[in-house]
Amino acid sequence: MTSLSSDIAKKQINLSPPSLLALGFLSFIVVGTLLLKLPISHHGDLAWMDAWFTAVSAVTITGLSTVVLNDTYTLFGQFVVLLLIQCGGLGFMTFAILAALSLSPKLRLKQEKMAQDSLGQTSLGSVHFVAQGVLFYTLFFEFLGVIILTAAWWPEYGFTHALYYGLFYSISAFNNAGFSLFSDGLISYQTHYLICLTISMLYIIGGLGFIVLMDIKRQKRWRKLSVNSRLVLITIAVLNVFGFLMIWLLEAGNTATLANLSIGEQALNAWVQATVPRSSGFNTLETSELTSASTLLTMVLMFIGGGSLSTAGGIKVGTFIVLVLSVIAFLRRQDEVRIMNYAISTENTLKALAVTVISILLIFVGLFCLLVLEPKQDFMNVLFEVVSAACTVGLSRGITSELSSGSLFVLTLLMFTGRLGPLTLAYLIATPNKTRIKHPTTTIHVG
Fold first, then answer.
1. Does residue 44 fall inside a structural domain?
2. How many CA atoms lie within 13 A of 94 on its CB side?
3. Residue-range definition of the domain harbouring residue 195
4. How far apart are CA 288 and CA 377, in angstroms?
5. Which of 61, 269, 386, 433 is deepest in the core (most CB within 10 A)?
6. Residue 443 falls inside a structural domain
7. Backbone angles phi, psi at 344, to 5 degrees
8. CA distance 225 to 232
9. Higher pLDDT, 226 or 57
10. Which phi-psi region, left, alpha or beta, contains residue 158 (left: φ > 0; alpha: ψ -120 to 50)?
């Protein structure tokens, strides 16, 4: 008996990195749902679907919600949501790596390979550095956010309430979760420059990606930054400025959004509305009142998302860059995809294509299901909700609480797969099938 127990104890659970990642997030969701259903967590009755939806949205750092947090959940329940956001932002694999590092100074090769795959690193030696960096930068920027936001809310709410709001919004913002304690999001503070700019800076920094942040700290000079870091920074800056100018132009005459604000307040809210689609989910304008053009632009920005290994969602900026460069290379009849005197591998190009196609398919399937389940809902509202869930953004045109349980469950599946990442989902489902056999090439006419 002892020998049998010893043999069983020595056996290791052979799980692939995607499987481990999926099970890790799922375990957080299940535990979070059970905690939120406790009587100590909520006021009055709370449906299982509302608890499940809140837990999924928090762990996947999306921000969609069927209830108003401050009205539905007690202080304990709100802390549960905050903890789920932090766990989802840092990521299950980061926790696993840090826990292993605390027990052993060196990971075993198999464990380190799993961590390497999950963190998207090409070097085994960089896994330790990245895992510790993720934790350090998260706590550092969240701490700065708490200080600034507490000072901003102190005159209005007093120190205790201001500190709580500062803590909640700092964690929610840096992790791009978009959860708000106010029923109108941040619309009540659309003229408060310090609060809006602080929150926007937090989710922008969180959306850059920890690899880029660590590269900036290590190199300190633009020319020494890696090609990836420079491309991500340039692209995010261009997308933010482009979105800012377009939103301001499209909404300047809209009396339901920007028209009644001063020039400075219009610029502030145009900036927030242009940058939140990158995955943060906060809103200082009524999303349902945006013009159709602004709504379409917002969905495109949600689809692109933020940087890799960040708290943002979407297909990621790096994927978008590779796709654009691949199209340019094809139109120029170049034999390879090049940028800054470097060539992008065919594997990288195919990976970007796979991520994009799978993301589009997920959105299509989700949209189809919701249109079947919610025939009375407006098409644009449903599409916006689906894109927001699949890209883990959290913006809504106000229909979340109106959806049926079936539709809400579909949205939770989209949020879950969106947080795992479409490529991780494909690896999870697909069975590796490598072969040494080489087949003759053929031509399939496209376009």
1. yes
2. 22
3. 15-427
4. 13
5. 61
6. no
7. -95, 130
8. 11
9. 57
10. left
Please check whether residue 174 is in contact with residue 138, taking contact to mean a CB–CB distance below 8 angstroms: yes
Per residue in 303-326, pLDDT (tens digit) is 998 887 777 888 889 889 999 999
**447 within some domain:** no
> In this predicted model, what pLDDT tens digit does every residue of 186-233 receive, in sequence order?
999 999 999 999 999 999 998 888 788 888 888 888 888 888 889 999
Contact of 419 with 60, CB cutoff 8 Å: yes
- Grade residue 5 by pLDDT with cuts at 50, 70 and 90: very low
**DSSP per-residue string spanning 422-444:** HHHHHHHHSPP---S--------
Show Cβ contacts of residue 181 under 8 Å, excluding neighbours closer than 6 positions. 69, 70, 78, 165, 168, 169
A 10 A CB-CB count for 111 gives: 16
Asked if residue 365 belongs to a domain, the reply is yes
Could you give phi then psi for residue 195, rounded to 5 degrees? -65, -45
The tokens for 34 are 């059970």
Residue 413: both structure tokens together: 């599946």
> What is the number of domains present in the chain?
1
Question: Taking a C-beta distance cutoff of 8 angstroms, is the pair 61, 88 a contact?
Answer: yes
The owner of tokens 């990245």 is 130
What's the Cα-to-Cα distance from 27 to each of 20, 137, 171, rounded to whole Å? 10, 25, 21
